[in-house]
Amino acid sequence: MEVLFGVLGPVTAWDGAGGAIALKGPRHRAVLARLIIARGRVVPVSRIVDDLWADPPPDAVGAVRTFVAALRRVLEPDRAPRTPPRLLVTEGPGYALRAGPDAVDAWRFERVVASDRPPAELAGALDEALGWWRGPAYAEFADEPWARAEHSRLAELRLRAVERRAEARLARGLAAEAVPDLDAHVAEHPWREDAWRLLALALYRAGRQADALAVLQRARTLLVEQMGLDPSPALRRLEEDILRQAGHLEPSKDAASRVWAQAAEAYDRTVASGSRARLESTVGLLRNLAVTGAGGLEAAREQRLAAITAAEELGDAELTARVIGAFDVPAIWTRSDDPRQAAGVVAAAERALAGLPHGHEAARARLLATIALESRGARDDRGREAAREAERIARDLDDPALLAFALNGAFMQAFDRAWLAPRRDGIGAELVDLAERGGLSSYEVLGHLVRLQARGALGDFGAADRHAAAADRLAERHERPLVGVFTTWYRALRLTASGGASFEEAEAAYRRAAGHMRGCGMPGLEGGLPPLALLCLRVQHGRPAQTEPADWGPYEPWARPLVLLARGLHGEAASAVRDVPDPPRDLLLEALWCLTAQAAIAVDDREAMRRAHAALAPAAGELAGAQSGLLTLGPVSRHLDELAAALGE
Questions:
Q1: Helix, strand, or coil (residue 13)
Q2: Model confidence pLDDT, tens digit, residues 600-627
Q3: CA–CA separation, 138 vs 66, rounded Å?
Q4: Each residue's pLDDT tens digit, 544-599
Q5: Are 413 and 384 in contact (CB under 8 A)?
Q6: Does one domain contain both 456 and 600?
Q7: Percentage of residues in the chain with pLDDT exceeding 70?
Q8: 441 CB contacts (<8 Å, ≥6 apart)?
Q9: 547 and 437 share a domain?
Q10: Alpha-carbon distance 332 to 156, whole Å?
Q11: What is the DSSP string of 236-276?
Q12: Do 115 and 159 reside in the same domain of the chain?
């Protein structure tokens, strides 16, 4: 299978299964990066030596050959002895990398940006391509003379990709969706005239003429007063067109919009472009944007890693720590919306921790809380260690906001085994108390949602109902539309668990909840959840699994055996049960174990039954799956009794 290379961030390689390839030391990666930049051309050994060392050691040529030999071993591990390499080849006086046209993420990225696709396809393709960025291009070698030009070229190409995506959205009539990304884009790169033009055009087409004119005035002020440049003809024409079309309109009566425009204009006048203050202000905007709804959440997620990358490029560990730690957006769902980005944030936070000077304890706690949050669902212990240390520091500092952030990390790491709902309930109670005393409205919402989940798992629906109502009231008061996604799903669960609704009524409630969730901007929540909820409902009512095609998302391994059984494929179902993995450590841990238990009983897989029984036994007092706040399979004790009976115990 083809080896893939990543240079849109730290230089790395992946095998055909997507696993990271260990490239050894920095000089090994430097050789690989140098060959990737050459795009298949031969790089003489003498050139590699000059690029790797300012003052080459006597054995530099031999060292390069050693690096190449080590790279060949890991890039082509199955190559037979004494057979010529196919990927990293010797040719003439040097070496060349014979990678395929799709093997390097930067090469694929270039083709997407340059493609001439219809706007609908182009917007989606650029969304995906921008997600390939894990940091600055050739991150660890960006300052090397041999990489500097390629690093700068790719950085410019990335900015163009953001603008091309906005153009594609405008062409599709999605002006309002284009505004958040463009707003963050011009804040971070205020010298790009075309970005200002696109932002003003998007605002105008979204019916915000006054805001569009204010943006053009900000651009003019910046260009003339701070850069000594006249606005381009395209900017001037757009302003004239808007004035001609909007001149008859009354001045905006929206006081909030006027304040926003005036404050933004004053900010542009007084805060220097490229300053650290601008970068930190951008992160504050992204944090606020993340809780405003689906479009805002998606835009904040897309721009967050770019902001971290920009901070790292400045080489200031304290600034990077502040930029990473400032994004303390409360999180309730335990599956990441973007695992690749989450890994990039964790890696950046670890680097910032390593470079942070002694004594910056609050910044250290925020970095650790970030690692705990973004490591949700991971099977190693790093996230739990980071959560414990962040909480300890926050308590020592007696900082309520910092402690709330750390407790969110502790919540995300409280899923290492079944029957931890009481612990999470305690975290939720402390969050509510902290938030009420400290005026932390977002964490007050989070605390109520955590308690809704925990009390539901314990079958205390009276308390869970009160927390759902409190979360809804806070969401309305503080404009938090995404809260309604969780409370709507909770009420479908509540109807199912009450026993007073028919199967058809419960199914209809889940379908309504799925419709309410559509487009919420939380793929980690949305992916595969609607069919999983219906499957759990059918199991609870003793019905076979649904057999029509469904997008099971990450839950396919646990759904597959029951679907095969419903189709009468007993042998294939038995094989699928043998292959089913242990569930991830998250809010659906018990639910997925119960699905495994039911399938194992049906195919008489005693080993799988014992595994399920051991995992579920501590949670005998819970409602299976109700800890998610979204779905249930009834009491865990019922599944344990059925397992015990099938095992003859």
A1: strand
A2: 999 999 999 999 999 999 999 999 999 9
A3: 22
A4: 999 998 899 999 999 999 999 999 999 999 999 999 999 999 999 999 999 999 99
A5: yes
A6: yes
A7: 95
A8: 435, 474, 477, 478
A9: yes
A10: 36
A11: HHHHHHHHHHHTTSPPP--HHHHHHHHHHHHHHHHSPTT-H
A12: yes
